[in-house]
Fold this sequence. Notes:
Layout: E1 40-44, E2 50-62, E3 65-74, E4 80-84, H1 94-105, E5 109-113, H2 118-121, H3 124-127, H4 130-145, E6 155-160, H5 162-173, E7 177-183, E8 200-206, H6 210-222, E9 227-232, H7 244-262
Amino acid sequence: MIDLLLGGLPKGASADGALLGPPSLQFRRAVTRTNQSRLGVRLTTSDGDYVAMRGGEITIPADGVTLDGELLVPEEASGIVVFAHGSGSSRFSPRNNFVAERLRSRGLGTLLFDLLTEEEDRDYETRFDIDLLTERLLAATDWLRDREDAADLPLGYFGSSTGAAAALRAAADCDDVTAVVSRGGRVDLAGDALSGVNAATLLLVGSKDDAVLSLNRRGFEQLTGEKELTVIEGASHLFEEPGKLEAVADAAADWFADHFEGAGGQ
């Protein structure tokens, strides 16, 4: 078993969310790739509580490439949330990892993975290829559903920036998705798919993020299912102001927990 202290952003994180230097142990588990799906991981939350986990580092096959990721599922999890990161980011996004830790402390499983390979990510245009990002997210969803330990759990998507567009498009294509949360999402890039999203959708936007807030208000009107638009007062696009990312994490955890319970989760 491995004890890791959770809580807070990692040292070496820049203002735009990129990691400077090697990711900390907070996000890269000291595990081998052997029998990772059976690995027992005991995580320590910032308040000192222990959360028993199963999972570890994984790989996902998708259209001839292999995508790296990390799956962590608490015992008696009520559901699993798949993260779709924004352009120029990765599974090591400090903000997404912060939110993921909060979700796991609430008994929710998380899957963070790279939507693109390192080579693909060097192409700026590929980062904004929403069709490709959606295909990768759906491939990860299929991979997850093929696992015995995840097949029957309610499923949600958490998308950031361009990843939110992929999450909404994927949710429109997949009736198996119970809930979606968008953090500062480019929901406009989801296009006509917005009207086909049946999953309960929460849009989280900072009050200082004027352009994205305007896009979210327009996109909100196109959503036809259960929906909510929450404006985080005093927050900019990256939610880097004190307490704002915590507000995002808490709102997301509440949204997923409530809707997973309604869908038959633990």
